[in-house]
Specification:
The protein is mainly beta and about 150 residues long. It has no helices and nine strands. It has one domain: Jelly Rolls, CATH 2.60.120.
Length: about 150
């Protein structure tokens, strides 16, 4: 079985995670995957804006069991996650209920408490990660979901 790499958004383009890089929660041997998104260009805080949306098409099926966020500096941020089968999702397709992934004056956070989340992911689903709020000036803000 081929090892699958996580898909990330880098400068607005969907790319495979570069060799040797990992996302929090990434599993080995193809057993777990970490679809996610990166906001910002890593050099300029102005490259991140509330309302930005990053899309990822998922090439595998599984169950979301956790989320992880990392930023280059402590900040407060909230990200909504949307999902649609083979189509670009909208806010009507939110899967997070009231438990959106968030940083609160932190540079990293994660949780496996997914109360109210729709956790099933199917081949061809499109995930959208929308930056709902941001306080602070990170140059890079990343989110990853653990799917296994």
């Amino acid at each position: 079985m081929a090892v699958r790499k996580a898909l990330v958004i880098i400068s607005g383009a969907v790319q495979e995670m570069p060799g040797g890089d990992t996302l929090a929660g990434a599993g080995g041997g193809g057993a777990a995957h970490s679809p996610g998104a990166a906001f910002g260009d890593g050099t300029n805080a102005a490259s991140i804006a509330v309302g930005q949306i990053a899309y990822v098409r998922v090439p595998y099926a599984g169950t979301i069991s956790r989320w992880d966020i990392a930023a280059d500096v402590a900040c407060t941020a909230q990200i909504d996650v949307w999902k649609a089968a083979g189509a670009v999702p909208t806010v009507a397709n939110t899967i997070t209920a009231a438990a959106k992934p968030a940083l609160t004056a932190q540079d990293t956070a994660g949780s496996s408490t997914l109360t109210g989340w729709t956790t099933t992911v199917s081949v061809g689903d499109v995930l959208a990660f929308r930056l709902d709020s941001l306080t602070g000036a990170p140059k890079q803000l990343n989110i990853a979901l653990l799917v296994s």
